[in-house]
Amino acid sequence: DADVTQTPRNRITKTGKRIMLECSQTKGHDRMYWYRQDPGLGLRLIYYSFDVKDINKGEISDGYSVSRQAQAKFSLSLESAIPNQTALYFCATSEPGSLAGELFFGEGSRLTVL
Amino acid sequence: GQQLNQSPQSMFIQEGEDVSMNCTSSSIFNTWLWYKQDPGEGPVLLIALYKAGELTSNGRLTAQFGITRKDSFLNISASIPSDVGIYFCAGRGLRNAGNMLTFGGGTRLMVKP
Lengths: 114, 113
Hints:
By secondary structure, chain A is an all-beta fold. Chain A is 0% helix and 53% strand.
């Protein structure tokens, strides 16, 4: 079983709909992240959380919100989806003491907004 | 914000060939990481570099932390079909808080058997 689990893995929705992507982890890490992947643009940080009471905006937070329900759960919401939010979304975790700052990624959630 | 330029964007090579890709930055990084993303999966860490000039190997993969601290290189020797995927460089700068990484745009590698 994956240590970082994302649901759904694929979702097609319409413009204006509210969408939630969920992430849960069994790694016991305090730090969780949401990234967006677009071809040629790499991975861009949307939001991150260093513990349950901590929420921080990343590089591209406009149009998104997050909720850290527990240490192991971090969800991403699109309040009113638009077509340019069509992308592959990744949840990730990390340990605060990690020298490399290594991120452990989920398998991704592909979102298509029509 | 900081940006990483990764090249080439894609490569289509014959099995057995060696591969080189690199990342350059306009600012200094104190850590460089190389990730690989298999089709349908999330990225996985291949190699981490911590010091300027450092050369580190992981099997057929070799990565280097550039002397200027503004670039890094990844080489794959004797490519095989399972090397197919997207390779990302990532860097953490001196002014980044926590574990914030900046990612390159990725190099898509295709290997012809």
